[in-house]
Amino acid sequence: MTEKISIVITGRNDNYDGDFDERLALSLSFNMKSLPEAEFIFVEWNPYLDRELTSHKLMKVFGDRLKCYVVHPKYHDQYYKNDGFLEYPAKNVGIRKSTGDFILCTNSDVVYAPETVLKMKSFLKKKVIYRAERIDIRADYKRVHFPINPKFILEYNKGVTNACGDFLMLDRDTWNEITGYCEEFPCQRLHKDSLIVHQLLEEFKMPVEYLGFITHWRHKSSWSNGFVPCHRLGDEHWDWKKSGYVRNKPTWGLTFAKEEVIDGLTWLI
Q1: Kind of pairing, strands 5-11 and 39-45?
Q2: How many CA atoms lie within 13 Å of 245's alpha carbon, on the beta-carbon side?
């Protein structure tokens, strides 16, 4: 690998859809094995304080191989109170805490195909939008093997802004220039990933390169299943192309938050 890559994943201790912890651990195991030199960062946003942290569970398995940051609920309340988890502010925390030359924001239930990993290990260029196409696979196909058996494939996701929240890699300077994912429109979670790609294309005039594909376990609350919890995701008809290019404040990613190590975990508190 010619450049250091940081990989940012987010979640909280609610075991979303009943198997979040399992999907997350499997995904990390697959991808850490494929990318042994990469930096993996998990940001636990707004955890339940009366439950065991997902970060604690992960540290028992992965140890120092995974860097965990826990964001105290008081910061969540400054953003939005109708949804317990905010994916993109959490990813911004991971971006700001990362040390890589290139930073990949991804999700907890994806596995990178060998061809994608190979290209991630090759020479990467600045000022390029790196994407990977997502293949939705059955939720019960936990032990992923490549090439994927067609009987397990549910859908191919095409289009540069389609499913881009699952794989978006940029060089550090570009992440800083665009100030991460937009932290405005706090009630709008759906399409925030599309918004940043649209900004990179239209405002920054950056080219797109596809590195290959990733797999995604289609859990029961996946958007692809037609599950639309509006109180959590926002307006599905939000016109993100017309929302305007909004830079975050210099403190994006909670850079002002105090860090405190509690039980071996770094809290933003």
Answers
A1: parallel
A2: 11
CA dist list (Å): 49 to 16, 44, 222, 229, 254: 16, 12, 26, 24, 20
- Report how far residue 134's alpha carbon sits from residue 152's, in angstroms, rounded to the nearest whole number: 14
CB 91 within 8 A of CB 181: yes
Task: Tell me which amino acid residue 30 is.
Answer: F
**Cα 61 to Cα 26: distance, rounded to the nearest angstrom:** 11
Q: Where are the alpha helices (DSSP H) in 122-240?
A: 172-178, 192-202, 230-233
Residue with tokens 């090759």, as numbered in its chain = 122
Q: Specify the pTM.
A: 0.93
70 φ, ψ (degrees, to nearest 5): -115, 120
- How many Cβ atoms from other residues are within 10 Å of residue 259's Cβ? 11
Residues 146 and 111 sit within 8 Å (Cβ to Cβ): no
Residue pair 9/50 in contact (Cβ under 8 Å)? The answer is no
Q: Which structural domains are found in the chain, ordered by start?
A: 5-268 (3.90.550.10)
pLDDT in tens, the chain (269 residues): 568 999 999 999 999 878 899 999 999 999 999 999 999 999 999 999 999 999 999 999 999 999 999 999 999 988 876 678 999 999 999 999 999 999 999 999 999 999 999 999 998 999 999 999 999 999 999 989 999 999 999 999 989 998 999 999 999 999 999 999 999 887 777 788 999 999 999 999 999 999 999 999 987 666 565 554 555 667 777 887 877 778 999 999 999 999 999 999 999 99
